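Work through this protein:
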Amino acid sequence: RFHVSRNTDSKMRSSLEKEFPEFDGHVRAFTKKMELEVPEERINSYIHADQIEISYACGFFDGACGGTIWGFENGGEIHSYKGFGAVKHESNHYLFAQVNKDAPTFLVEGIQTWYENYEDPRRRDEGLKKALEFIDEDISGIILTGMGVHRGDKYYKISGIIVDYLLDSYGLGTFKELS
């Protein structure tokens, strides 16, 4: 179920409404690839009009994400801003939580980024270039605590490459057991 803010401009609203029917297909594709159950209940998705509106729904992100947020999942609800990509991204977090609600943030973002790379292999190449660019950076704190993973695109890309390596090396079943 989608709830679009009444403050959303008509052009954005029209664009989003065209994409709603694709969402069920996205959920089925992600759950099939990840070997998860399709939820019986429809996912509630709230699409906010702007950064101010979404920040009312999630005040803590000002510190965590530097004041910019595209979306978040909380309590089985998806909140997003700026289009359907964020809805899909956040819904994947919700769906993967079937495996472990408390999985480390770095892996949670990594699974999502890995899936985006799976859907568009060019993204994987971009992620690999970004990972190599920062190969000497010590990111152990980000991997272990998740703090800082949301600050910028590079850690998303790097997390996707690391998850790709883990899945290739150990398989989906073992990855899910260890998440």
Observations:
- The beta strands are 2-4, 44-48, 71-74, 77-81.
- The helical segments are 10-34, 51-57, 61-64, 84-96, 105-119, 121-133, 140-145, 153-178.
- The chain has a mean pLDDT of 83.
